[in-house]
Every structure is written in C-alpha cells, then in structure tokens.
C-alpha cells in the first residue's frame, strides 16, 4: 500500500464522520459490498488479503454510521482454471486413505500445486489443452438444462444450494467437493480475522443468466 492510498483512507468522508461524530441528518443507505473474492482450490494470497482488508474497512465504517450493509464474497469457482484442475487431478491425486487423513490446509495446498503444474503443462501441451477444453465443455453441458430464474436473497436465507441439471459426473462431483472444501478453509481463515460475510456467491451463477438480488 502506498502513501497516497493510505492518505485517501485517512481522509475518507465516512471515516471522518465516524471519528468526529458529525453525521448530521444523513439518511442511511442500503449497500452491497463485494470483497475478498478468492478462487476455489487455491491458497489465499496477498491480493485476496488486500481486497479483504479494504472491504472489511468499508463494511465496518458504513455499519458504524447506520447504513444497511450486506457483504458478499464472490468465489471464483468456474471456468478454465477449474477445468485445468479437474483434468490434471486424476494424475496426481493421492490415495483415498492418505487424502482422507489430510487437513483442509494440506488439501488446498495440493490442489494449488495441481493447478500450477496443470497451467504450466497447458502452455506447452496441445493435447492437454484440448482435454481441458473438453472438460470445460462437459461442465457447461452438465448445467445446460438450467432454466434462468430470479433468486431472491435475504440475510435470513443464508447460503442455499439451488443447483439444477446433471451434477452426477465425476467432474461435477469434484467441483462440489472442492467448492465445499474451499469454503470451509476460507471460513477458518476469515474467522481468524474476525470477518463474516452475509453471502457467498458463486461465479457459475452469473455465467448462466441468473438474476441475483439482495434485499
């Protein structure tokens, strides 16, 4: 963080309002703050931390001045990245007994390593790139029967599974398993920073014509 960025934070009007208690007749606002937004199956990195700390700052300040805030963590769970992992994972996945004995941190580290190697392989191996494209096409086809719909979210609803389509393939089962593992791992990390989100959103939702609003 450079000095200009810190200066902007220090002189932000909302922060001044909190520190000087000069709110006047300001009306409260309804705000959605989307922050952190890591990818699944990857270790939390400094870029995620920067977004997380800035988002948490905005969240706390706006709640302190009376705004109605909903926080959303938009996970990157779809696309070529996951197709690479799914394609390469069978070659490096450890035995069931070893995998089941691993903790979440070790599992995420193994999946991160899998992606790094798969990404490197994809740059030089056309056959592998073609397999990745086939895997991604399978992912897309597995939810091609989805009917676009409006999903209304309230803070009371929490995180609801609303998947439809054929999720029975090994690729889609792996997707769900890794997504759940990643959410569990991230929640443990966020708890150490005393951060809670009202919603976890998934990038595959917004890739398939869902209308998503928060009230």
Automatic annotation (TrEMBL):
Assigned keywords, A-Z: Aminoacyl-tRNA synthetase, ATP-binding, Ligase, Nucleotide-binding, Protein biosynthesis
A Pfam family of this chain: tRNA-synt_1d
InterPro entries given in the database record: aa-tRNA-synth_I_CS, Arg-tRNA-ligase, ArgRS_core, Rossmann-like_a/b/a_fold
Family, per entry: Belongs to the class-I aminoacyl-tRNA synthetase family.
UniProt function note: Catalyzes the attachment of arginine to tRNA(Arg) in a two-step reaction: arginine is first activated by ATP to form Arg-AMP and then transferred to the acceptor end of tRNA(Arg).
GO biological-process terms attached to the record: arginyl-tRNA aminoacylation; mitochondrial translation
Gene Ontology terms: cellular component: mitochondrion
SUPFAM superfamilies per record: Nucleotidylyl transferase
Molecular function via GO: arginine-tRNA ligase activity; ATP binding
Keyword Ligase applies: yes
The keyword Protease is assigned to this record: no
Protein's recorded name: Probable arginine--tRNA ligase, mitochondrial
UniProt domain Arginyl-tRNA synthetase catalytic core: residue ranges: 25-157
Organism of derivation: Haemonchus placei (Barber's pole worm)
């Amino acid at each position: 963080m450079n000095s200009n960025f810190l200066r902007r934070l220090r002189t932000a009007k909302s922060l001044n309002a909190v520190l000087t208690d000069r709110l006047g007749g300001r009306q409260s606002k309804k705000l959605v703050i989307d922050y952190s937004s890591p990818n699944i199956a990857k270790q939390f990195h400094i870029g995620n931390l920067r977004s997380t700390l800035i988002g948490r700052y905005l969240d706390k300040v706006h709640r302190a001045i009376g705004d109605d805030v909903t926080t959303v963590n938009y996970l990157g769970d779809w696309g070529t990245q996951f197709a690479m992992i799914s394609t390469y994972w069978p070659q490096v996945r450890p035995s069931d007994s070893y995998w089941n004995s691993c903790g979440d941190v070790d599992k995420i580290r193994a999946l991160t390593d899998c992606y790094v190697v798969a990404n490197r392989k994809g740059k030089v191996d056309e056959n592998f790139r073609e397999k990745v494209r086939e895997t991604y096409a399978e992912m897309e086809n597995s939810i091609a029967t989805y009917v676009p719909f409006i999903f209304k979210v309230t803070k009371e609803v929490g995180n609801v599974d609303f998947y439809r389509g054929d999720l029975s393939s090994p690729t889609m089962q792996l997707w769900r398993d890794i997504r759940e593992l990643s959410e569990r791992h991230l929640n443990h990390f966020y708890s150490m920073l005393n951060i809670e989100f009202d919603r976890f959103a998934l990038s595959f939702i917004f890739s398939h014509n869902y209308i998503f609003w928060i009230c």
